[in-house]
Write a structure and sequence with these properties.
Number of strands: 10
Number of helices: 8
Radius of gyration: 16 Å
Number of domains: 1
Distance between the termini: 36 Å
Structural class: alpha/beta
CATH architecture: 3-Layer(aba) Sandwich
CATH superfamily: NAD(P)-binding Rossmann-like Domain
CATH topology: Rossmann fold
Length: 203
């Protein structure tokens, strides 16, 4: 697939590296194509350009920039969002989403697109790079309103090595964002460190 990743930070670079290895066409959109982050993306063999230019022919767009700048960046891009699947991997850890319930709903409003899937936000970059614990793949929880788009995102998540759990419509994104806040609190504020993940057990 033709995937544009907005942002070449840790999460975007980890996803782009693995998707590139799976044969996807990866383009990074960045604020400064001469930055160190941009060069890191170039080094994996991806194309790197401006936010605007990166949207050309994109089928899937991964929003992997800090939520605090997402409003500015997305509104600066002049593109027809219809027909593009938007994956929201952002977390409003210290930024309000008001007047929206979640970052995902904010991104839907800012782009005018109902085709937003929340994914990849409930864990850290180490688990994005290696989502396996004791031989078991950990989950990425996804939600969104478009069934076909969630199927596409599920396939891309499996390419990253995740087990996918669909938790319903976009109105549930706020719960995934709160789960991310819990993970960050445990990992960094309570000193557990990043080498753990939330997972499901079933019988």
């Amino acid at each position: 697939m033709r995937i544009t990743i907005l942002g070449a930070g840790n999460i975007g670079l980890a996803a782009g590296t693995k998707w590139k290895a799976k044969g996807h066409d990866i383009t990074f959109g960045v604020r400064d194509p001469q930055s160190q982050k941009a060069w890191n993306a170039i080094n994996i063999g991806a194309k790197v350009t401006t936010f605007q230019e990166s949207m050309t022919d994109a089928e899937v767009v991964l929003v992997a920039i800090p939520f605090g700048v997402a409003d500015e960046v997305l509104k600066s891009i002049d593109v027809e969002w219809d027909g593009k699947i938007i994956i929201d991997a952002t977390n409003p850890i210290s930024v309000s989403t008001e007047p929206f319930e979640s970052a995902a709903e904010a991104i839907s409003a800012w782009t005018g697109s109902a085709d937003v899937v929340k994914a990849f936000n409930t864990t850290g970059v180490g688990n994005m790079t290696n989502p396996e614990y004791n031989g078991k793949a950990i989950e990425t929880f996804i939600c969104g309103d478009e069934v076909a788009s969630k199927q596409t995102v599920s396939t891309l998540a499996q390419d990253l090595g995740f087990r996918v759990v669909d938790v319903g419509g976009i109105e549930n994104a706020v719960m995934l964002e709160n789960l991310a806040k819990l993970w960050v609190t445990m990992a960094y504020k309570l000193g557990k460190g990043p080498n753990f993940a939330f997972t499901l057990v079933e019988r």
